[in-house]
Amino acid sequence: MRTAERLFARAVRLLPREFAAEYGADMVRTFARRAADRRSRGGISLLLFTLREVAGVAAIVILERAERLRAIPARSAPHRDLLSRLEHMLTELRHAGRRLLRTPGFTCAAVLTLALAIGANTAIFTLLNRVVLSPLPYGDADRLIAVDHTAPGVGLITGVGISSGLYREYGELPSIEAIAIHVVTETTLSGDGAARRLSSLYTTPTLTDVLAVEPALGRWFTAEEGTP
After folding, report:
1. With contact defined as beta carbons under 8 Å apart, do 228 and 168 qualify?
2. CA–CA separation, 148 vs 182, rounded Å?
3. Sign of torsion, CA 128 134 137 139?
4. Of 87, 104, 1, 124, nearest to 51 (Cα)?
5. Which tens digit of pLDDT belongs to each residue from 157-209?
6. Distance of alpha carbon 4 from its chain centroid, rounded?
7. φ, ψ (nearest 5 deg) of residue 16
8. Of 38, 39, 158, 170, which has the fewest beta carbons less than 10 angstroms from its beta carbon?
9. Is the CB of residue 194 less than 8 Å from the CB of residue 163?
10. In angstroms, rounded to a whole number, what is the distance separating the alpha carbons of residues 171 and 178?
């Protein structure tokens, strides 16, 4: 299910349970059919159509909740306050919808700006979640460190890396359980058909010991195959 259809289906689930169970599937199918036609006209047309339909469902939900509150006998003060807020929100939504329809140019610009902002925030959160919030998919990930060296005398503040001599020397330290060297690069794969650019990794055979992982397919390199 595409993003527009998924968003509308979530909005339909907010409707009363009996109504959604009887008519929800038909509503989603009808929306998907109409969205396919809008999608062929362009992304802006689909976006405006989706916002209008979702706003319509949201208005129905607000009205239904308001009617339910009205049906409560001897409403208490909190109920009255909530009903007043719902009615005020619905009124504001109607005014906003009318203003947006009167200025389609401004509406398109506003929707595009909102879409870009949401996309940027989603991308930033995804990166933050993967890098900071979620643990790395390796064993004892909190004990992994990256080793780097500097050479201030020649203007290299970082990025010097580690030499084969330091690799062997560090490997003999009792405080280090395992150490590996790796370099990420790109390789051209040629053969049958057109050549392809692939991400590749030059590494020592000890990388699986450092990350506590095993290859998904095949076998890993032996120590003899890692001899310089």
Report:
1. no
2. 12
3. positive
4. 104
5. 777 778 888 888 998 999 899 999 988 899 998 888 889 999 998 899 999 99
6. 16
7. -50, 140
8. 158
9. no
10. 7
